[in-house]
Amino acid sequence: MTPPTAPAAPPFDSALLEEAAKKSGLLWIAPAGHPARPVWHTWHDGAVHILQDRTADAVEQHVPGLAEAATAEVTLRSKDKGGRLITWTADVTVLTPDTEPWPPAAAALHADRLNAPDGEDQPSRWARDCVIVRLDTPRTLTHGPDLPQTSQSAPPAPTSATTRGPSPKNLSLGRKLRPR
Q1: Structural domain total, the chain
Q2: Is residue 162 part of a domain?
Q3: Which residues contact 75 (CB under 8 A, 6 or more apart)?
């Protein structure tokens, strides 16, 4: 179900949102009733697009509750400083492979996807295993001094992604370099 369209954001807010989304490759998203999680995204056709796997234990990112949510709180960080730049409440629209916006959105995500395990075959895998979530129309937009002043830090979400063990010791420690 598509929520009713919110009134358009002021031009400055829309421009700030677009510029921040284009420059930042990572955002924090919190669907209603769920904690915020970091996800990679791309800006395409005037909205943020996120690739999401249908299951939590798959190859691509998964945000619990996002595909079922009507809205989500989104926070973009500043590319140069890394701090919170803008926060907004977005309408969530789920795109599936049988919808018209899927092919161009999948192509935009494919162009921005780094280290893909299956290269050029990934769009066909996405059509089989994933949905694309489009974050539309800011309902409320906050930036500058109106942002919360607390850190909003939280412990990391549980994940199967762990290091394999300690890093190898640097073999050059304690050895003098030869003069040239």
Answers
A1: 1
A2: no
A3: 27, 28, 29, 36, 84, 86, 87
